[in-house]
Design brief:
A seven-stranded mixed sheet has the order 1-7-8-9-10-12-11, with no helix packed on it. A five-stranded mixed sheet has the order 6-5-2-13-14, with no helix packed on it. The chain has a two-stranded antiparallel ribbon with strand order 3-4. α1 packs parallel to α2. The chain has helices at residues 33-45, 65-77, 94-100, 135-144, 174-183, and strands at 3-6, 10-15, 27-28, 31-32, 52-55, 84-86, 111-114, 117-121, 150-155, 187-192, 200-204, 209-214, 237-243, 249-255. It is globular and about 50 Å long. β9 (150-155), α5 (174-183) and β10 (187-192) form a beta-alpha-beta unit. 21% of the residues lie in helices and 26% in strands. The chain has five helices and 14 strands. With 256 residues, the protein is of the alpha/beta class. It has one domain (10-255): Metallo-dependent phosphatases (Purple Acid Phosphatase, chain A, domain 2).
């Protein structure tokens, strides 16, 4: 894993699921997703305490190169200078992410290192909309985990069921991922995208329970009572994690 070092309390903004089109006026379930993304970025910019931004996938809806270019353009227009990290979502093409998200403020690193915390960025994209925790990802994380520190894991797919239709596209090999979590008691929490909702879900391990925090989408929030993807009318949002020097983690959700 490539790493970045931050030597203080870490405040992290998570954004997810922009579902952009090649056109600025592209609509996803009647929402202007480009403008929604910009509104979220401007809200994050207004909070000077934020050290890093992590995008947890599903940049594109129409799978065009233009949508990747528009994502970068949103950050340019909002004059975002905060470092931005990312993982791929099921809609994304990793090669296009790496091609277009290659210059500042974007960083192609998978470990954020603090005095007391490590943030691990894990890829869960598979050949289907569902996710997979691969042996390669586990091995890569295992090589860098410092048991003297605490870890926050960020990925696209959710590792426990959320209780609505999105579960058919969740992490396929949940047991393998939970075995990984069990092996590292210093892992304190997980954050994911994909759900298009801000939920706190318990992950029950043999010796402890940790929380999975899902991130509201910058595009639309899913109606959890629907059998298919449908907006519930909530505005776009983002999540803030504060990783304190005493290994305590707090999280708060914002809508704009």
């Amino acid at each position: 894993m490539i790493q970045t070092k931050i030597s203080k309390q870490l405040t992290l903004a998570q954004i997810s699921d922009s579902h952009l089109f090649a056109e600025r006026n592209g609509l996803h379930h009647q929402a202007n997703v480009f403008q929604n993304l910009k509104n979220v970025l401007l809200a994050i910019k207004s909070q000077p305490s934020i050290d890093v931004i992590v995008f947890t996938g599903d940049l594109t809806q129409d799978h065009t190169e233009g949508s990747y270019q528009l994502f970068v353009q949103a950050f340019e227009e909002c004059e975002i200078t905060t470092p931005v990290y990312y993982v791929a979502g099921n809609h994304d093409e990793p090669q296009l992410l790496n091609r277009y998200l290659s210059n500042a403020p974007f960083l192609q690193e998978s470990l954020i290192e603090g005095n007391d915390w490590q943030v691990l960025l894990l890829e869960s994209k598979s050949t289907t909309p569902a996710g997979v925790f691969s042996k390669a990802q586990g091995d890569s994380a295992s090589r860098v985990i410092d048991p003297a520190k605490s870890q926050l894991v960020l990925m696209h797919h959710h590792a426990v069921d959320a209780g609505f239709f999105i579960d058919q596209h969740g992490l396929i090999n949940k047991a393998e991922f939970q075995n990984f979590l069990t092996a590292y008691p210093s892992i304190k929490a997980i954050g994911c995208g994909h759900i298009h909702q801000a939920l706190t879900l318990p992950v029950k391990l043999p010796a402890r329970t940790i929380n999975l925090y899902s991130c509201p989408a910058t595009s639309i929030q899913f109606d959890i009572n629907s059998q298919t993807a449908k907006s519930n009318g909530q505005p776009p949002g983002y999540r803030i994690f504060t990783l304190a020097d005493n290994s305590q983690i707090t999280s708060k959700v914002f809508y704009v």
